[in-house]
Target: C4-type zinc ribbon domain-containing protein
Amino acid sequence: MDQRLADLRDVLIAAETAQGDVAREQKKAEADVEQVVNRAARDRQLLESGRGSAKDLENLQHELETLARRQSDLEDVVLEVMERMETAQARVAEMTAQRDEAQARRDAIGAAITAATDGIDAEAAKLTGERATVAGTIPEDLLALYERVRAAHAGVGAAAIRQRRCEGCRLELDISEVNAIKAAPADQVVRHEECGRILVRVPDSGL
Model:
């Protein structure tokens, strides 16, 4: 997501730069048209005044015709630049929308991650407290055994038996092990022969 957002920002900067270049072209083209229009207006005033020689007035007439053609050409340039400006503005608007959408998604994901992390931290703190309370009721030798097994088995020192299967390693207990567990007193600590975890007997153990 961060890379996508960075790429969109780069594309948007490029689009804004292109729009700026076209805007300068448009300003220059419009200034050129204005200059020609002003020059033609001055010549027209001189021509209409009738001052000057016939040769001067004839030259003014020719210049007005040249200026008219020049104005037409420049106005075509202005129209072409305006069309490119519309395209550039549309591109900037599109990339801005995509950038904003990506930013909103990133912010939403970030907020969700923060909320989830806070929830996990709160749950971990709660479970740590509960574990400390429960650990205080367990005999020290049994707790020490649990900690050793837990350290050796990826943090899982005890596992329930469900339908004659160890929930720690997911292996089914063989018949001799099932019979031994059945015969053992309810308060006797039993361990799985395969994985070594402490086995916890529950209502659906299937024993």
Remarks:
- The beta strands are 158-162, 165-166, 190-191, 198-201.
